[in-house]
Design brief:
Bound molecules: guanosine-5'-diphosphate, magnesium ion
Number of helices: 6
Strand content: 25-35%
CATH architecture: 3-Layer(aba) Sandwich
Strand order of the largest sheet: 2-3-1-4-5-6
CATH class: Alpha Beta
CATH superfamily: P-loop containing nucleotide triphosphate hydrolases
Length: 165
């Protein structure tokens, strides 16, 4: 029987959550770069092994969808907080983590310092210092980053993957 593991992606609108889901679930070589705000939710599935699939669920980042977040977070094995790598965006993400800290208490958390390709991007280590959670650098529009994206999800699910192995 296949077990589904829920991984939620949260973060401000425009951070790159939908692009990251596409990167991880879609074999295409070129990732579309037009921005379309996610209407509430976006999702995709990746296969870890014969018996385990990961459901990636994006929580629409715009503030008028925030009312759904507490519900969407429920049952998540891992929450991936996606942020742009500008100081302003990272500070906003830190506030977001603070605001939802009660809902994030019993779940593994990692952060993605996305858009590392943009000039002046903060290094993942600096983003990690500010957010206080393990942080991975990412360029979600670059298909070459796909393997790093998988590794990041697998390392976030390490307890579960060890059990499955
Ligand atoms: N330069 C650059 N742009 C990115 C990257 N990831 C996403 N984007 C762009 O940022 C915009 C917002 O991305 P999207 O995935 O829709 O953000 P979401 O609102 O968090 O789902 C889109 O135009 C993407 O093409 C990246 O790593 N680098
Ligand atoms: Mg989106």
């Amino acid at each position: 029987m296949t077990q589904y593991v829920k991984v939620s992606l949260m973060g401000s609108g425009y951070a790159g959550k939908s692009t990251l889901i596409k990167l991880l679930t879609d074999g295409t070589k070129k990732l579309e770069t037009n921005y379309r705000p996610t209407p509430g939710m976006d999702c995709g599935t990746i296969t870890l092994d014969d018996s385990t699939k990961v459901s990636l669920v994006e929580m629409g980042g715009q503030s008028h969808f925030e009312f759904m977040w507490a519900d969407l977070l429920k049952g998540s094995k891992l929450v991936v907080v996606v942020t742009e790598s500008t100081p302003k965006a990272v500070l906003k993400t830190r506030q977001l983590l603070h605001k939802y800290k009660d809902h994030l208490q019993n779940v593994d958390l990692i952060a993605v310092a996305n858009k590392q390709d943009l000039p002046g991007a903060m290094k993942p280590e600096s983003v990690q210092d500010l957010l206080g959670i393990p942080t991975f650098g990412m360029v979600a529009i670059d298909p070459k980053e796909r393997i790093n994206g998988y590794k990041m999800i697998v390392s976030g699910l390490r307890d579960l993957v060890q059990v499955a192995a």
